[in-house]
Design a protein that fits this description.
Distance between the termini: 19 Å
Number of helices: 16
Helix content: 55-70%
Structural class: mainly alpha
């Protein structure tokens, strides 16, 4: 791993540690490579889904272009009555609309995320990939003492309901509804901030102030102040892309981790603390895939690879789950990332090295059907 010298003496930037961010970016590449080595992803069903994903990417591009095409048609009609050759505002309108759709509202990203609630393929891909990660882990360590290996993730996680104890009272569309509410709020705030940035005099401070407010809790006052000062001199478009990359990466991680949280029931507060404790690594992992998702047409296909890679990620930042009957206190035990510093120090080629003895005595019976040994935390 690329470790900054004297890492343990570095000042902490809140929970957003630079080394955690670097490790998260590394896991983007490692996770994607591991996912692509899984031949199960290339069976007929996934081939069909991959083809559908590319077609969906094309449809998304067309949907995003509809408003622009509509404006172009309107301008073409107006050109019969107005001479646009001596002006450039019509081009500015088209470019501004394109910028708002792709950088302010993140329409393509929204449509890709929405696909999760239309088809169960991504959830199945996460679980299939988790099973493959377990298999390759034990294959890699087949010469080691089984007592020193971690427990499996897939075997127990597949026994959990994706809707918890309230599955009888929940509609399959509840997740889509909550996602739409989250996106609507975020889109409304983004549009409001973008519009306020055009106010005279104070407008130039709006985006830098939003940057400071966003990063103050994440990285601390000093780095946030530097971002604020830098933002005063950057063009508006760069600041918008910077902020939206941050928020979209966080949103992407929440969506990619949905198959895990749909099974392991965290309270709202526990989930907030879980993300907070892993913020730097998750941002590094998320922003890497967010960049790849910007590739035209292939973005939806890459989204599937990102979901498969998240299965590998989850084995590095959580413990193997117990059977559902023993899961009462499991969520609370996962809020803190206990082995963070040890994991960040590991060489990139040896990410499976850190193991600790299973501490929970009530899990000994539950794991009688698994390989005896240790668990990864």
């Amino acid at each position: 791993m690329l470790v900054v010298p004297g890492m343990s003496q570095q000042p902490s930037m809140g929970q957003f540690d630079l080394n955690a961010f670097i490790r998260g970016a590394q896991l983007t590449v490692v996770g994607a490579l591991r996912a692509l080595q899984n031949r199960g992803l290339f069976k007929y069903e996934h081939y069909r889904q991959a083809a559908l994903a590319v077609c969906a990417g094309l449809v998304i591009r067309l949907l995003v272009m509809i408003p622009i095409i509509g404006v172009r048609v309107l301008l073409w009609i107006l050109s019969m009555f107005i001479d646009f050759q001596s002006t450039t505002w019509d081009d500015d309108v088209i470019q501004g609309l394109h910028f708002i759709e792709n950088s302010v509202l993140q329409v393509p990203f929204f449509l890709m995320s929405m696909m999760r609630y239309i088809t169960p393929t991504l959830d199945q891909m996460f679980m299939d990939s988790l099973n493959w990660v377990d298999q390759t882990y034990y294959q890699k360590h087949k010469s080691d003492d089984p007592k020193n290996l971690r427990a499996t993730y897939y075997q127990n996680l597949r026994m959990y309901s994706t809707h918890g104890e309230t599955s009888a009272n929940r509609s399959p569309l509840d997740g889509a509804r909550r996602f739409l509410i989250r996106y609507s709020k975020r889109a409304g705030i983004s549009l409001a901030i973008f519009a306020l940035s055009y106010l005279p005099v104070v407008g130039r401070f709006i985006l830098p102030a939003a940057s400071y407010y966003t990063f103050n809790k994440a990285v601390g006052t000093v780095p946030a102040t530097v971002i604020f000062g830098t933002g005063l001199f950057l063009p508006r478009a760069y600041l918008v892309r910077f902020l939206q990359s941050y928020f979209s990466s966080r949103s992407l991680m929440r969506e990619l981790l949905e198959p895990y949280f749909a099974r392991i029931r965290f309270t709202k507060e526990q989930k907030r603390r879980w993300f907070r404790d892993r913020e730097g690594l998750l941002f590094g992992f998320g922003v890497g895939f967010y960049i790849f998702l910007k590739i035209p047409l292939l973005g939806v296909l890459i989204y599937g690879i990102a979901e498969a890679s998240t299965a590998y990620l989850i084995t590095k930042i959580t413990d193997p789950p117990p059977p559902p009957a023993y899961s009462e206190k499991f969520a609370e035990s996962q809020v803190r990332w206990e082995n963070q510093h040890e994991f960040l120090k590991l060489p990139l080629a040896n990410l499976d090295a850190w193991n600790v003895e299973t501490a929970a005595p009530n899990q000994s019976t539950a794991r009688s059907n698994e390989l005896p040994g240790k668990k990864f935390t």
